[in-house]
Amino acid sequence: xxxxxxxxxRFLGILAASAALxxxxxxxxxxxxxxxxxxxxxxxxxxxxADAQLQLLHPDRAHAERxxxxxxxxxxxxxxxxxxxxxxxxxxxLNRQGRLDNPPSDLSRLLSQAIAFGERxxxxxxxxVQVLWDLYAARVRANQPLPPDPDALRAALTKVxxxxxxxxDKAIVLEHPGMALTLNGIAQGYITDRxxxxxxxxxxxxxxxxxxxxxxxxxxxxxRPWRAGIADPQNPARVLDSIDLxxxxxxxxxxxxxxLDPSGHFTHLFNPHTGQAxxxxxxxxxxxxxxxxxxxxxTAFAQMPIxxxxxxxxxxxxxxxxIAPDDGxxxxxx
Length: 334
Description:
T-fold; nine-stranded mixed β-sheet; 10 helices
């Protein structure tokens, strides 16, 4: 979703070492002793619609430099497919035209997954909510109050329907005039998975990849799994809980990341059924086997009552951490 002039900076991180290159004992010692880590290879630029920095730690600097180049190239390749910040991306062209012939395989694949998540979440994950973002963002730019009036919301909701996205071997078609898609509720997870698989294919057996969502590759040491934190929405520098990851991924959705009004009451997390932009939870964190699943479900869970989330967890092999809207307490579901 295009952002109405909200400045952002994203840290993209890869902490990695290859047991095949340095041996298990050396890797174990390096991860237990931060002072022994090598100097990171660092890249600064624009990625995923924001200023970004990527760092990779590896004992073989030449190999690390090559992997950074590969990772950055993969991120930029996928941005050319999914980004709404680029007018020439495949997704932007689909939104303008309502149809995209010979679409990139990544777009067809991820949209197919998005539709499947829509079906499994009773439509609370829906990539066609871009029209709601456009409606809210236009009012923000015009300094008009939120939410939009009921008639405008009803008109926008006629264009929100993941079931009206048709995908076949030759084209992607948006069957309702005026529909527009966003993959911002799932694409960061997908990109994280693709970068993780790229690193695995290039010899890395142990890595933590952070592309806005986190995915751990392998286990660096038997007594020290990879670990990611849940930030306090009221004070993002404060970590409320730390979660171990062993060949798993973690994603967080929180309206505090992109507020649309000074109070933070209206956010980028939309209810596709009602058009409302106020999530039920301050934040939702999901741990899953892959980052695509964690990203999509954390987006959908943001609009679900707790009993519905419990039912979803019983059907998906995932865990969830919810931060309550009233007192900020942390609720763990597994």
